[in-house]
Amino acid sequence: MSLSQERRDALRRDFPPSRGVEEIPSQDIPTFKVEREVLPELARRLKDDPQFDFKMLSDVCGVDWPEREARFDVVYHLYSLTHNHRLRLKVPVRQDDAVVPSLFGVWKAADWFEREVFDMFGVRFSGHPNLKRILCHPSFQGHALRKDYDPGQRWLLREGEQDEPAWAREVQEDEDHFETQVLNLGPSHPATHGTLRTVVRLDGEVITRAECEIGYLHRCFEKMSEQHTWNQIIPYTDRLNYCSAMMNGVGYVLAVEKLLGVEAPPRAQVIRVILSELSRIMDHIVCIGANLNDVGAMTPFLYVYQAREEIYSLLEACAGGRLTISYVRVGGLANDVPAGFEDAVRYLLRRIPPLVDDMERLITENRIFRQRTEGIGVMSAEDAVDWGWTGPCLRACGVPYDVRKVAPYLGYETYDFKVPVATTGDTYARYLVRVEEIRQSLKIVEQALKRLAPGAIITDNHHVALPPKDKVYTEMEALIWHFKLIMEGIKVPKGEVYGYTEGANGELGFYAISDGGGSPYRLHCRPPCFAVFQAYPHMLPGHMIADSIAILGSLNIIAGELDR
Amino acid sequence: MKTADVIVCDPKPLRLWQRFYLIEVLKGLGVTLRHFLGNLFGRKYTVTVEWPEVKREYSDRLRGRHVLLTREDGSPRCVACYMCETACPADCIHIEAEEDPNSTVEWEKRPKVFNIDLLRCVFCGLCVDACPKEAIIMTRHHEMAFAGRQEAVATIDTLLQKGPIDAIDLGYRPYYGRESRPIPLPIPVRTEPLPKAPRPELAANP
């Protein structure tokens, strides 16, 4: 849903082009070009004025246009939960004066996103409290996403230059000579589920200050995307959130399909829904299972993992891979599902609920678990929105935001399911929301299965999809299409689009810019757990170390998606 | 969003008997005991297998190690068109072409060098989709171990199909009008004893 005309007029009236705010044509979300001088005032107005009410900053990213005088664009994507409309702001800056006022004072969500833009493009944000590299190592040189950065370069990154927060170096001592202690949680700690580092200051066992360092799994997915064709990126998207690889692929191809103006055939859409929802179940199973494991409950982890193992078998039978499945293609799916697909899904529908029931029997009303998690890691709804939280973590705070409901894709508006919401916002609420989401996903799968009708699985537009193999072997024309598509890639028309879907962790956005060529000019991924994790160090003070592990597990941080 | 679409799952206060530790412990033990006895006696299969003595069966689409198919006369089907090399997102395929002395109207070239760096390969199957000659397909052979990096580079000699096509443990390959095997769920396992020394080569020719 986009900003209505009268609201756009109101915006134009108060911020006329003479003040440096100008509407520019866009194909999906209303876009305004904003001079940096007016940005803080405009941002404040957009957030506080009830007719705009942009309480959520979804995404900040940079774009490099080397041939332009104002070389960089800093692009902001805003979202309003109450009006369900979106807005894109573009702030152009010159390379020799690449400074933009930080919006951290308006939306806390700007914190890490702005650091990422600084890291990748070298654009500085004045007034940012902690502006330093986030995904790259401190001794990395250059800015990787600038067009003139050669990705073949190698840097020697030394351990001694490891980033250490300034506050962690000073010694704190009270009058009784009791010292506080600085402790590194991670990077390679079994409870961090990936390589994340959290530096904490401890007073006894209570955390008084914390800071996170991420980027250990950074491989610059966005730079790689610029050098591959649109279809070649699909295997890379699998490695973003590897616990639910299918949904990343679906989110990505939906963004590209939006740019292309094509739609997958109905059968492909239904299969995408079935496998996406099963992937969501898998992701929640990993999150809950690992979280329970961390707080000391090993058994339910083993019960629910059986379901995950069998979902993997289904994915493997369809796609040929288990973890990184690469099953979707722009315009449809790589192959049709094999015979017996429906029976296998029905088997899973019978198999999963008893396992989840058993887990619930052991955990949900368990007094020990509740005492470990209730009131731990509490986030208020207002703060959660401010930090840019989405997905189950936001819903556990009482905000019923689900992209499948507010901006349906793949026909989600026709499925009957409910959005689970809890109001307490603590670790226990996040557990409850995820368990209920597993049940709702099963409901969706059940409905989708009834709609599975025979038909094509990929569009027959040969500018987009490879022709069928039997035609490639026998027909000249199909062979030519085949060659052109492989050699040059899909020619996506010029334009930009922000495609967003409901990933397992929340709003998974892909901001794609095409210059009409076979590969993206710029592809930015808005990973949901990036926004969630930036609030983590601010949740820790006042909690014990053991609580920090329980909180971390409930946030479901997937390093592949966090670090990209 | 309509409120009807929302389901509130707030924590319920613990009831009286749930506050007593012992009752809940006994209930929990009941659940685990049921699983334990079920696994011990009435279970037909378990999700976990005792690998490597017991192996699980994979689907016939599994994307494992590649194989280059041959024509009836034993020459490679590959015509060195560089499609797989172009399609590969990991840049792991390296082809050098040469003129085929037995060329016909149908093809002119053949690969002189065809290397796949299996350490770079991400096993996505895009090369199989890209091949216009059904020359490169994948097998279900996926347990690969190498002593060095050089060993991981599969050359044309090791990639080329040896023996009849039925002898290959076929995996991911182009699907067109071909009935695929139904999905085996629950996951079947293979319990027959393994050959003494499992060879990394594909489809040993008898």
| Class from secondary-structure proportions of chain A | alpha+beta
> Strand count, sense and closure of the main sheet of chain A?
5 strands, mixed
> Mind summarizing the main beta sheet of chain B?
3 strands, antiparallel
Quick one: CATH class of the largest domain in chain A?
Mainly Alpha
Structural class based on helices, strands and sheet pairing of chain B: alpha+beta
Instruction: List low-confidence stretches of chain B.
Output: 194-206
**Strand order within the widest beta sheet of chain A:** 1-2-5-4-3
Report Rg of chain B: 26 Å
Q: What percentage of amino acids of chain B are in beta strands? A: 15-25%
Hey, which two chains have the biggest interface? A-B, 73 and 56 residues
Tally of alpha and pi helices of chain A: 21
Quaternary structure of the protein: heterodimer
- How many distinct domains of chain A? 3
- The shape of chain B is elongated
Description of the structure:
The complex is a heterodimer of chains A (564) and B (206). In chain A, 40% of the residues lie in helices and 16% in strands. Chain A has 564 residues and is α+β, with helices and mostly antiparallel strands. In chain A, the strands form five sheets. Chain A has a five-stranded mixed beta sheet. In chain A, a hairpin with a 4-residue loop joins strand 4 (72-80) and strand 5 (85-93). Chain B has a domain at 55-190: Alpha-Beta Plaits (2-Layer Sandwich). Chain B has five helices and eight strands, in the order βααββαββαββαβ. Chain B has helices at 16-19, 21-42, 83-87, 126-130, 156-159, and strands spanning 6-8, 55-56, 66-68, 93-99, 109-117, 136-138, 153-154, 189-190. In chain B, the strands form three sheets. Chain B has a three-stranded antiparallel beta sheet with strand order 4-5-7. The N and C termini of chain B lie far apart (66 Å). Residues 194-206 of chain B have low confidence and may be disordered. Strand 13 (419-421) of chain A pairs parallel with strand 1 (6-8) of chain B, so a sheet runs across the interface.
